[in-house]
Design brief:
Blueprint: E1 18-27, E2 33-40, E3 44-49, E4 56-62, E5 72-79, E6 84-89, E7 93-95, E8 104-112, E9 117-121, E10 125-127, E11 132-141, E12 146-155, E13 165-174, E14 177-186, E15 205-212, E16 224-225, E17 230-234, E18 239-246, H1 249-264
Parallel strand pairs: 1-5, 4-6, 5-8, 6-9, 7-10, 8-11, 9-12, 10-12, 11-13
Antiparallel strand pairs: 1-2, 3-4, 12-15, 13-14, 15-18, 16-17, 17-18
Length: 270
């Protein structure tokens, strides 16, 4: 048996690192939020950082390079009833090809119980030339809970002649109802048209912001464009999706930050 967070080797065994990170947030009984579970393996190191206003906050700190080809990484976050959890990363994540030639996988599983709030705001994911990465994010949100989820992806590093291959899936369930399920594949080997005007239109940075708020049930934001390459779209209540394309990560971040500031008002985060 191979220990978690280590490379697996041997005939017929998959290559790469298997690593998990888990964080659970719960009320501390004093008006704040405790983290009874905060554990990470291999490249997924977790660190608690200062927060206030009843929030707990943790960051993923890259302890190793990756994901590399063949890696299988999973992040699980659970906000229990009444907890307020902010979770992010200390730096951008860079996917590289590694030596195995296999695809890498990065799974994110978010669970938000009734009366809780979770903010998943990692830095950008950069898909380097020659890499092959599948990202799957799943959010299960109880009725009455709140979620802010941001994803930002950059195809290729500066100077890369071509990007790596990225398959990115996002699924949102509120209560028993699936409100969003989508998948995009782009880069070498992706279905034709991924870089055309109907999809990325030549852009190399893309991002999306998913916000779930109980108050959107009665008063959903109005669907509208946010510039030339971004849009805000109400989903089945109580969720809103913002999607943006840009020439670079900074352009996408500005759009998503502006949209979140508008959707947040008058709320405050960690």
């Amino acid at each position: 048996m191979t220990a978690p967070g280590t490379a697996e080797a041997g005939r017929g065994a998959p290559s790469g690192v298997r690593a998990n990170a888990r964080v659970t947030a719960a009320p501390d009984g004093r008006g704040g939020t405790a983290l009874p579970v905060l554990t990470g393996e291999g490249p997924l190191a977790l660190r608690r950082v200062r927060a206030d206003g009843g929030w707990a906050r943790a960051l993923l700190v890259g302890a190793m390079g990756g994901p590399l080809g063949g890696d299988r990484l999973t992040v699980r976050a659970h906000a229990r009833p009444g907890a307020r959890l902010g979770l992010g990363s200390a730096a951008a994540t860079l996917a590289l090809p590694g030596q195995s030639g296999e695809a890498a996988r990065y799974d994110v599983r978010l669970t938000v119980d009734a009366g809780a709030e979770l903010r998943w705001l990692p830095e950008q994911l950069i898909v380097g030339a020659g890499s092959d990465l599948a990202v799957a994010t799943r959010a299960d949100v109880a009725p009455g809970a709140r979620l802010v989820l941001r994803e930002e992806q950059v195809l290729g590093r500066t100077g890369d002649a071509a990007p790596g291959r990225l398959t990115s899936g996002l699924r949102l369930r509120v209560g028993e109802q699936v409100l969003l399920e989508q998948e995009l594949t782009c880069g070498p080997g992706a279905p034709g048209g991924w870089d055309g005007p109907a999809v990325l239109g030549g852009h190399r940075a893309l991002g999306q912001l998913l916000v779930v708020r109980p108050e959107f049930t009665a008063a959903p934001p109005v669907a509208r464009l946010l510039g030339d390459h971004a849009a805000l779209t109400p989903l089945a209540r109580p969720a809103v999706l913002v999607q943006a394309l840009g020439r670079d990560a900074l352009e996408v971040r500005r759009v998503l930050d502006g949209a979140l500031a508008e959707l947040d008002a008058p709320d405050t985060g960690p």
